[in-house]
Each structure stands twice: as C-alpha cells, then as structure tokens.
Amino acid sequence: MDITILVKLTSRAWSLNILALMHEGMPGRQAPLLAATSAGRTAFAQSLDHLIQLGFLERNPGHGHPLRPEFRLTQAGVSAAEIASRIVNAVPDDADFALLRRSWTAPILALTDMPQRFSTLKSGLITISDRALSTSLLRLEEQAWIRRDIDATHRLPFPTYRAVNQGIAVNRAISLVA
C-alpha cells in the first residue's frame, strides 16, 4: 500500500476497524458497525465519511433507509479492507489497539522494518511535523513497538529507529499485501 494512502486512511481513529469489520463480512449498516467498534457516534461518523471521501466505501443503492443507509466496499476499498484486517488482527489486545488508532502509528511502523534515521522517516512521511514524529516515536518506544539505537560508528552519533515486537507484526501485516 502506498504510504500516502496509508497516512490518509489512518488519519481517522476508526477507519481501520470499519474496513476490517466489513472485510470479515459484517453488514455495512451503521448500527452493527458502531456496536462492534465501540466508538463514539461522532468519531464513528467522521471515520465513515472519511472512508467515503477516500473512495473506499459507497452507499449501497436500493438498500437501507435514507436515514440509516447501508454501505459497501468499493473496488479500492476491498484491497484496503484486506490490509486493514491484517493490521487489526496483528494487534488483538484492546489496550495496544488504542495506540494503533493514533494517526501516525501505522505509517511509522510501515517504514521501520529496517533501522531508519529521524530525517529519513520525516521525508517518507511528507506531511508530518517534527513534533508529531518525535511524539509518535516516543509513544511507540514506550510501548516497546520501536527500538531506538544509537549508531556510534560515525563521527557524529545518531539515533536509528526500528520496529520490534508488536511493531514488527504490524509492519509485516502492511508489507504482506503491499
């Protein structure tokens, strides 16, 4: 999956969950999806609208009530839902999944299969700010999903970041389908 699409997809907290549930066969109606995600109504609605804007979901014509529409995956949504399902299944623990719902977690983990410098990560995630990247790396390091090593082989030592533990599982889930 292209990193810019992954960044857009994960910019809403419940997008991965919604796609994963639909990939696993859950009907595309709001009530069952909302109950299965345990999201708040506003955040869920924003994630659903976001998926429609990205072209991964569409209203199912002729199905559902105008106030309670039914949705289905588009052609692009089918492949995105497969990736979302792999990512969600890589982190089965609800406490850990809260970190995965954060905006930059999955894109950072996608880039850290090999040791990466801060500047390389920043250039790979074009729209990320220094503060957002450093905060995300710190959270991932505290959760033991990323390991920070100091490369002292050069004249000026510098840190490198690499996915480990659950982080490498998420990285592989993204890379398997890419």
From TrEMBL:
Signal peptide: none annotated. Residues 102-168 form the HTH hxlR-type domain. Keywords: DNA-binding, Transcription, Transcription regulation. It holds the Pfam family HxlR. GO terms for molecular function: DNA binding. It comes from the Bacteria. InterPro entries: HTH_HxlR, WH-like_DNA-bd_sf, WH_DNA-bd_sf. This is HxlR-like helix-turn-helix. It comes from Ruegeria atlantica.
